[in-house]
Amino acid sequence: MTTIKNIVLVHGAFSDGSGYRGMYDALTKQGFKVTIVQNPLTSLKDDATATTVVLDNQDGPTILAGHSWGGAVITEAGNHPNVAALVYIAAFQPDTGESALQWFRSAPPAPENGIQAPNEKGIVYYAKETFHAGFCADIPAEDAAFMYASQGAFYAQCFVTPITEAAWRHKPSYGIIATEDKSILPEIQRNMYARSNTKTIDLKASHALHISQPQAVADFIVQVAAELSGK
């Protein structure tokens, strides 16, 4: 079997690629080549295109991982021939013809959830008063304040656009369920991943598990790489 050394990380809404710094450090120390996609968050098509550009530049089989909204992006872009497997990090996993919003609405939201309705420009923001508790309760308050200030604009059309061809139907899929998640409820994650027969682990963490527990998430990806490489 071919040894997998390439990892591409896709961020979600209300955050950017810098949130993967801890995972980048953990993975590169183990010899992996890590590339981080900077999604424009303007549409599913635009985010999938940004991911495809990065995948085109990989020199071999690649693990494609996505957090939150990034799960929908890797589901759309993951049919790329360089993708050996998909990893969902507390992430949406719609099927062909489904949108992320369908799954978001499949259970009543947590009281801490601060995802607001789109504004007059069709942009969705996470509310300041619930950002820490609802998005990243297990990181320091000062870090949460910076994340809120740098969340950027997430266009609502991303959420409502259906997947054209779900990559998890053709590629091995793995997932991490954040058991303390208040943004994508754990029961929603379990339901998505059970439907697709995704191999999962539980991690006691908030929605921002890639930031609060980067080593644990990185370790899971290392295990996936080892499994795929036959080690």
TrEMBL record:
InterPro entries: AB_hydrolase_1 (IPR000073), AB_hydrolase_fold (IPR029058), Sec-Metab_Biosynth_Hydrolase (IPR052897). It comes from the Bacteria. Residues 7-219 form the AB hydrolase-1 domain. Gene3D superfamilies: alpha/beta hydrolase. Pfam families: Abhydrolase_6. PANTHER family: AB HYDROLASE-1 DOMAIN-CONTAINING PROTEIN-RELATED (PTHR37017), ESTERASE_LIPASE_THIOESTERASE DOMAIN-CONTAINING PROTEIN (PTHR37017:SF11). This is Pimeloyl-ACP methyl ester carboxylesterase. It comes from Chitinophaga jiangningensis.
